[in-house]
Design brief:
The chain is mainly beta and 652 residues long. It is built from seven helices and 42 strands. The radius of gyration is 26 Å and the shape is globular.
Length: 652
């Protein structure tokens, strides 16, 4: 099945705001000790009205209680070995049989103790089960240790429990676990990755408390067959300069590494862009190739690439011009398999750079969510930080330190750092368990926070707490969860809370620019929309492809959001560019001309103007790819805001 390169689009510029004049433990995580539930919990129990409407107090209590567990010496003991995988490297969504050996540690496992097989619980691995040999995920368990009996049952999604009977397991005793032992095997995940983990946990004394072995068995999951061509060029280029052209052959889910071989034809480049007529892909290219082209003249380019078997890819639009600042593309929110995503941190950054051709990227794994929590395992946090350092290439590819502050009370925020070091301030620690405490901890740091899926989804943002303008000038309005822009937004977020959209936050007087980002869990930063109805990207208006340049643009709200496609958007209100704050004298009003230019990736449906909470004007796209829209806006007063929303025919 061939997927379109740009599914639905909902795009909004950063608002232009009008204000009244003259009045308007270790170095890695800094974790605090937790001896009991923090004072916050007692406070919200005493005053339930202090809680946001959809706060998940039950989740917070569970996480805090699990953090304070006392483990028996045998819990988490032993090790696991991957014996065989048939096939050795399964293809996505295909059957596989995996044989593991658990080797008992020095403390043994008592009668009544348990061993647990935890297949990745976040995506599409078959749930291990012991009751139906003809069904997917059937798992057999056995041991040659005399006198030991083993019984197993499915306990939760992708979780199998194996209870020890007869006699205790002693050091060196082996338990063979064959996942996919039945006639149909077990089905691999739909996302490819080099190190897909199969976790083992042990409750050695049978008291109901299990501990995960920190070193899982891993298998490589290969991509499926070639299904699409992704073609990416810069959005802004200058005549006379050389620019990169990235062509990637991907499978139906956006996984890299699909077999792309032979000659590809490049079309529709001239006269603006000089490129070879054909390029050759070999096995050594791994399905991805970067070439250079020369910008010969001013104009607009949408490159077309013809591949094997009638496969075709079209690039985003490029405006070759001497006028206007550059637009960088970033994905500032995503996850690896160190929390609830797919793939390693290193592969995350490789995909962002080599496949999605992003300019800016951040990996924001959860502070405390997943099999092993970052705030409890400093080595995992250090691995992420080292990957950020290794891939950072100022002027070419900007990587940012970051993580997700995963508050199940006040809403999730990702935290980004624009320097070489970063501290993980946990949402579970009493010193940083509220947004205000988090901002206090960040005081003095070149850091920003971003509320996301703020209108609903897993948990909405508590907008009763005003965003600190030093750290939160921008908010994420769209991701794989949907759009939090407004109730009338295309692709609205699921489980939306009326009155909690970003437009409602603007109506409260908050000054917020808009970005999108993927919140990807598939290991595909920058292209998460290929395997989902929508995702998100941040368009960052900056001449400097550096951390300082990106930070300056975000602080100035020189940004806009898309739900995946790389649409060129220019917006100005008179002489004031996107993100501006305009001073209006008390009791006075101003008239300004709004100018909008759009280069789309698909035919345009309409361009809409939102003024102070209301859709007040717009123009139909007439199925053209480009448009220029001008309107005189009269009577603008202090406290108002305006922004633009562009919708394409392909949805959103």
């Amino acid at each position: 099945m061939r997927l379109q390169p740009a599914p639905g689009l909902a795009l909004a510029s950063a608002p232009l705001l009008l204000l009244g004049a003259l009045g308007c433990s270790d170095s890695a995580t800094n974790r605090q000790p937790v001896d009991a539930l923090p004072a916050l919990m007692a406070q919200v129990r005493a005053d339930p009205d202090a809680l946001p409407p959809l706060a998940r107090l039950d989740v917070v209590e569970t996480l805090l209680e699990s953090r304070g567990l006392t483990y028996h010496p045998s819990d988490g003991g032993g090790r696991v070995e991957l014996m065989t995988s048939v096939p050795e490297r399964p293809t996505v969504s295909s059957p596989v049989t995996i044989s593991l050996d658990y080797i008992t540690g020095p403390e043994g496992i008592d009668v009544g103790g348990m061993i647990f097989l935890q297949v990745s619980p976040f995506w599409d691995w078959s749930t291990p089960q012991a009751s139906e040999p003809a069904a997917p995920g059937y798992t057999s368990v056995e041991t040659t240790s005399e006198g030991v009996t083993l019984t197993s049952e499915t306990l939760d999604q992708q979780l199998l429990g194996i209870r020890v009977g007869g006699r205790a397991l002693v050091e060196g005793d082996r338990v063979r676990i064959v996942y996919g032992a039945g006639s149909v095997g077990a089905f691999a995940d739909r996302y490819a990755e080099k190190e897909s983990p199969l976790w083992i946990a042990v409750d050695g004394d049978g008291d109901g408390i299990r501990k995960v072995l920190v070193d899982p068995a891993v298998v490589e999951v290969l991509p499926g067959p070639l299904a699409q061509l992704q073609v990416t060029i810069p959005t802004i280029a200058r005549p006379g300069e050389r620019i990169p052209v990235v062509i990637a052959g991907l499978d139906a889910q956006g996984n890299r590494g699909a077999s792309l071989l032979g000659s590809l034809r490049l079309l529709d480049a001239a006269p603006v862009l000089a490129l070879p007529e054909r390029i050759e892909f070999t096995a050594d290219d791994g399905g991805v190739k970067r070439i250079e082209g020369m910008v010969m003249a001013a104009g607009t380019v949408r490159l077309r690439v013809e591949g094997p078997d009638g496969l075709e890819g079209r690039s985003n639009p490029m405006d070759a011009t001497l006028v206007g600042p550059r637009i960088l593309w970033g994905d500032l929110h995503g996850h690896s398999n160190l929390s609830d995503g797919t793939g390693t941190p290193e592969d995350y950054f490789r995909y962002a750079r080599d496949v999605a051709a992003l300019d800016v990227v951040a990996l924001t794994d959860h502070d405390h969510w997943g099999i092993l929590a970052l705030d409890d395992h400093p080595k995992l946090w250090e691995r992420i930080q080292q990957a950020v350092r290794d891939f950072h290439d100022p002027g070419h590819f900007v990587t940012l330190h970051g993580y997700e502050w995963t508050s199940w009370i006040y809403g999730h925020r990702h935290v980004l750092f624009f320097e070489d070091e970063a501290t993980l301030w946990s949402s579970l620690d009493p010193a940083t368990d509220t947004p205000r405490k988090l901002w206090k901890a960040l005081d003095g740091s070149p850091a920003l926070t971003f509320a996301h899926h703020s209108a609903g989804g897993p948990i909405p943002t508590d907008w009763r707490i005003p965003p600190d303008p030093r750290f939160e000038p921008v908010t994420e309005v769209v991701s794989v969860h949907g759009s939090s822009e407004a109730m009338d937004s295309p692709g609205r977020i699921y489980d939306a809370l009326p009155g909690n959209f970003v437009r409602d936050a603007l109506d409260m007087g908050y000054k917020l620019g808009f970005i999108g980002s993927g919140d990807s869990h598939d290991g595909h930063p920058g292209l998460a929309h290929l395997a989902a109805p929508q995702a998100g990207l941040a368009a960052i208006i900056s001449e400097e492809r550096t951390r300082a340049g990106v930070l300056a643009a975000l602080r100035a709200r020189r940004v806009y959001a898309t739900n995946g496609p790389r649409i060129l958007l220019r917006v100005a209100l008179g002489a004031h560019p996107m993100g501006s704050t305009i001073t209006v004298e008390p009791g006075q009003s101003i008239d300004e001309v709004l100018i909008v230019r759009v280069l789309g990736t698909a035919p345009l449906k309409h361009v809409e103007l939102i003024r102070s909470g209301e859709l007040v004007d717009g123009v139909e796209g007439d199925e053209s790819l480009d448009t220029v829209f001008q309107r005189k806006i009269e009577g603008l007063r202090a406290g108002e805001y305006v922004y633009v929303r562009v919708v394409q025919q392909d949805g959103g």
